[in-house]
Amino acid sequence: MREVVDNSLRHLGVEIIDLLYQHRVDPNVPIEDVAGTVRDLIAAGKVKHFGLSEAGPNTLRRAHAVQPVTALQTEFSLFEREAEALFPTLDELDVGFVAYSPLGRGFLTGAAKPAREYGPGDIRSSDPRWQPGNFEKNLAATGQLRALAAEKGVTAAQLALAWLLAQGPRIVPIPGSRSPVRVEENVGAADLSLTAEDLARIKDILPTGGFGARYASGVPTWD
Fold first, then answer.
1. Rounded to the nearest 5°, which phi and psi values hold at 15?
2. Could you tell me the pTM of the whole model?
3. Is the pLDDT of residue 218 over 50?
4. Which end of the chain has fewer surrounding CB within 10 Å, N or C?
């Protein structure tokens, strides 16, 4: 970790890293050791804040006891709701939440194709939500979201991001954007206010998330 931080500071040409994430919890290294190392890097003036990704409540508490955690990053979107179970702990510890893949890995933009049309190196080729059966159900739900978005004069992506922002003040979505046009579209979601009726209609469309799990296999349970 110390070597990575020194390399990052040199490569980025900066004096301090604002937020240093451990992007996956290492089961072979006690989280207290990770947090302690970040605490030392903060004391040395190389890092400002400590972040974790895909960590559960127990791990978060253990890390936070050594060095306060500023942000937890985990997948969260209209399609993926498991992270809601973390919110009470985040509220208790005053930890921010960074939602990655907030557009359902692109499905919620309305541009999704069946799994067979993606290359073998594309995660969507094996994502259960893109597989036959689930794909058609998710496509139908996305169509309903697009219709609601059209009523409000926005895109389905903007509606999905606005829904995330409506879930609480500590949530910050980080959509991947490949063009300036998409950046402008995503930023526009911040100006969209959803009414209670809007939120109720969205809940009717996707009560508990999309159809299909996040990954086909191999994802450990949060601790």
1. -95, -20
2. 0.90
3. no
4. C
